[in-house]
Design brief:
The structure holds two protein chains of two kinds. Chain A is of the alpha/beta class. Chain A is built from twelve helices and eleven strands. In chain A, α7 crosses α10 and α7 packs across α12. Chain A starts with a strand and ends in an 8-residue tail after the last helix. The mean pLDDT of chain A is 94. Chain B starts with 7 loop residues before the first strand and ends in a 6-residue tail after the last helix. The chains are: A alpha/beta, B alpha/beta.
Chain lengths: 339, 279
């Protein structure tokens, strides 16, 4: 199927009457996913959004319930967002990250109703990346600029139009409802050409990485590798697969609400025990945990690397601690330091 | 979908100062209805998030036993925001309880075996639950000898003193209490837990050891148990990593790839040997 670029705002306007529609919108020098009230606000030409689409399902701050407590009992009120949503213009790496996060919020024992309800009610419309940036390394972690994982529809930019790939029943229904027309053979050919020409130039070699992480927890590499890291947590807040959070009360006495806020394993008090003991006392342990979590623990638990190669941590680290370099160093790490 | 974040409101019926230093209080909480009680089926070793509305929530081991219907019991050390707020609660106040969370002591495996329970300081909470559970008359026959070795710095810091006194008289359980240094009027042993364990522990044959206590106690008790011939598979421990969600999502409590809240808190020494020592 195909939709002409000039028809996109009208298409989005139609969706807005039925769905809460999120699309990248301009915010100063970058774009962010926001609910839009007019199709014209969607910005589809920029690089990926500053924050990943993750925050739509797992917001930086989210009310879990409100309460009113008296001696007679406690009245708890939960508001789970079950509004039908369309995420329009999500990049393949960010769509993939949500498939990874599904493992966490729907684990072997517990289900998170806030995240899962939003996931179940959302249609994901992706847009492929014709010009991956210099920090994108999705193809090294099982993704790709036109990867379809986690998407219901994928748009391929062929110049004046988007060729639409239908990837699920949800996507099919939306495409039919929107009245997308069939793509001609020529359109399909130009989409295929675009896909072939889009090049992710940056590769990270992950051969043997997991095997190394299985054994190198106590290797001296960890004494060095974190040295630059300030522990600011920027990389974790911007990462589409990070899911750490804290739960706090926002209340005046017994009238208030319980809220969950993003947290970060980069912070010293994250693991501080009530006794004062801290199992991850320094940046070394904390940085090691970040790498171990994404490239070993997640693989052990769910069979996938918890990094989609979006490059946000590379672009935004204030001291240029580059995960691509870190992984290369980790891969080559030895039980003893040379010299 | 059950919402794992919602606490069960329970009524505080007793806020009891447990230790002489007043830093540990034991809270007895009552269910508001039978239905509430049914919604909270738990086993010894599990924990719950207690919340003081307006202050927040924190995880505490369940000190009561499922063999004691009608209430839940927690013993809480005053260390920070939530625990201090709990200490200030008055009888009749509402407390939120979220759980039961985590796995439990492998009581099925204990059947037909001897059990030695080794506890130090205020980490005795879920051990009390376990001992009480196994001592229940209709269940007692399932287990061999039950030995409890329990130590604290001084007699005033031992939890559950009335119960300990009753256990002293109970032929179904062999209780050994110890304190760090001698004081007048103390009839138990004097000495650190590892040394006392070495002296009084039953044969490791056909026996499980369950150990909870402060890190130093654990550190010095482990070699003793090894020396006594306990294999790592029959040494059971309970970890207390800092937690928030209790359901394996907030990423806080991991030891290697395991989440203490969801995959623990109860682990065998053998399982822990496979993990990095981040606890
Ligand atoms: C499975 C499990 C079972 C447990 N069972 C028991 C039990 O039965 N009894 C018991 O007493 N405890 C138990 N604990 C420990 C208990 O959970 C902690 O003591 C409790 O979470 C403390 O909560 P709090 O809100 O009172 O302390 P917090 O206010 O969270 O403070 C705890 C510590 O962290 C420090 N801290 C907190 N915030 C900051 C900050 N912003 N900056 C610097 N420092 C900070 C405080 O100074 C304090 O030392 C258990 C823990 C687990 C995981
Ligand atoms: S963004 Fe850079 S400095 Fe900040 S925590 Fe991450 S690696 Fe460390
Ligand atoms: S670790 Fe870095 S590159 Fe990988 S998904 Fe997270 S932010 Fe993107
Ligand atoms: S307490 Fe949240 S993951 Fe264990």
């Amino acid at each position: 199927m195909i939709i002409s670029k000039k028809d996109i705002p009208g298409f989005l306007d139609k969706l807005i009457s039925e769905y809460q529609v999120f699309a990248p919108v301009q915010e100063g020098s970058y774009t962010l996913f926001k609910p839009i009230s007019s199709g014209a606000d969607a910005v589809l030409t920029a690089d990926n959004t500053k924050l990943p689409a993750k925050e739509i399902f797992f917001p930086q701050s989210e009310k879990l319930f409100s309460y009113n407590v008296t001696e007679a009992g406690a009245k708890l009120e939960t508001a789970i967002d079950d509004q039908k949503k369309v995420i329009f213009g999500v990049r393949p790496c960010d769509a993939r990250s949500l498939v990874l996060l599904d493992n966490v919020f729907n684990n072997d024992k517990f289900q998170d109703p806030y995240y899962l309800t939003k996931r179940a009610n959302t249609i994901m419309v992706g847009i492929g990346c014709n010009t991956p940036t210099s920090t994108c390394f999705c193809t090294s972690v099982k993704g790709g600029p036109f990867d379809t994982k986690g998407l219901d529809l994928l748009l391929v930019d062929t110049g004046d139009a988007y060729v639409v790939e239908v990837l699920s029943d949800k996507g099919k229904a939306l495409a039919e409802q929107a009245g997308f027309v069939a793509a001609s053979d020529a359109d399909k050919a130009s989409a295929a050409k675009v896909k072939k020409e889009a090049k992710v130039t940056c590769q990270v070699n992950t051969d043997g990485l997991k095997d190394k992480l299985d054994v190198n927890f106590y290797y001296p590499i960890w004494d060095k590798i974190h040295e630059k890291c300030l522990g600011c947590g920027a990389c974790t807040y911007l990462c589409p697969t990070c899911h750490c959070f804290d739960i706090v009360d926002d209340a005046l006495d017994c009238d208030g609400c319980r809220v969950r806020n993003w947290d970060s394993c980069a912070f010293p008090i994250f693991t501080l025990h009530g006794s004062g003991h801290n199992p991850r006392t320094s940046n070394k342990e904390r940085y090691r945990n970040r790498i171990m979590h994404k490239f070993k623990y997640f693989v052990d638990n769910f069979g996938e690397i918890a990094c989609v190669g979006c490059g946000r941590c590379i672009k935004n680290c204030p001291v240029n601690l580059d995960i691509r370099v870190v992984l290369e160093d980790v891969r080559g790490s030895e039980a003893r330091l040379d010299s | 979908m059950k919402n794992p974040y919602l606490p069960l409101p329970m009524k505080l019926v007793k806020n009891f100062t447990e230790t002489e230093d007043k830093l540990i209080h034991t809270f007895t909480l009552q269910y508001l209805s039978e239905e509430d009680e049914k919604s909270f089926p738990y086993m010894p070793g599990q924990f719950a998030e207690l919340c003081v509305f307006g202050k927040g929530e924190a995880p505490f081991g369940i000190a009561s036993s499922p063999s004691e219907p009608g209430f839940l019991k927690f013993s809480v050390a005053k260390v920070g925001v939530v625990s201090t707020a709990l200490h200030l609660m008055e009888e009749g106040n509402m407390i939120g309880v979220r759980g039961p969370l985590g796995n439990y002591y492998p009581v099925e495996e204990f059947k037909g075996k001897n059990v030695v329970i080794i506890g130090g300081g205020f980490a005795f909470t879920t051990l009390r639950s376990l001992a009480t559970y196994m001592l229940q008359p209709e269940r007692r026959g399932d287990y061999g000898d039950i030995t409890v070795i329990y130590g604290a710095r001084n007699p005033g810091l031992l939890l559950y003193k009335e119960e300990l006194a009753a256990w002293e008289q109970n032929p179904n359980i062999n209780l050994i209490t110890t304190i760090d240094s001698a004081v007048d009027g103390w009839n138990g042993r004097v000495g650190f837990i590892p040394a006392v364990t070495e002296e009084v522990a039953p044969s490791s044959e056909n026996t499980y050891a369950i150990v909870c206590g402060p890190p130093v106690m654990i550190k010095f008790t482990m070699p003793v148990l090894e020396k006594l011939g306990f294999p790592a598979e029959r040494i059971i421990m309970s970890l207390e990593n800092r937690m928030k969600c209790g359901i394996g999502m907030c990423g806080r409590c991991n030891v290697g790839g395991k989440y203490v809240c969801k995959d623990g808190p109860v682990f065998t020494r053998a399982q822990l040997n496979e993990l990095p020592a981040e606890y």
